[in-house]
Amino acid sequence: MRGLFNSRSKHDYLSDALTLLTGWTREGEQIRRTLVMDDTQHAALTERVKVVADALRLRPEISRRDEETQIRVGHGDGEPLTEGEVLLAARIEDAYRAVTAS
């Protein structure tokens, strides 16, 4: 079930939350992030993201190129971002810090 942001106050809340996600850029109704990490860190991050995404019933796009992991969250089909998608992006940031700290 997706909770959409239809009212002005909810839109402002979403915009405020997105400003706190350093490194994430908005592309229409999706947000994306490129992370520099090695293959082992990528694998660890992917596993952590899968657990959170499954719990939120979301499917981020995660791809690997050279030494970069690219993540895209949101549907991109005209549906607005949800609180869950912004929460997933925040949890991805937490996982990124955890796998690159060691």
UniProtKB/TrEMBL annotation:
<dbReference type="GO" id="GO:0008124">
    <property type="term" value="F:4-alpha-hydroxytetrahydrobiopterin dehydratase activity"/>
</dbReference>
<dbReference type="InterPro" id="IPR001533">
    <property type="entry name" value="Pterin_deHydtase"/>
</dbReference>
<dbReference type="Pfam" id="PF01329">
    <property type="entry name" value="Pterin_4a"/>
</dbReference>
<protein>
    <recommendedName>
        <fullName>Putative pterin-4-alpha-carbinolamine dehydratase</fullName>
        <ecNumber>4.2.1.96</ecNumber>
    </recommendedName>
</protein>
<dbReference type="GO" id="GO:0006729">
    <property type="term" value="P:tetrahydrobiopterin biosynthetic process"/>
</dbReference>
<dbReference type="InterPro" id="IPR036428">
    <property type="entry name" value="PCD_sf"/>
</dbReference>
<keyword id="KW-0456">Lyase</keyword>
<comment type="similarity">
    <text>Belongs to the pterin-4-alpha-carbinolamine dehydratase family.</text>
</comment>
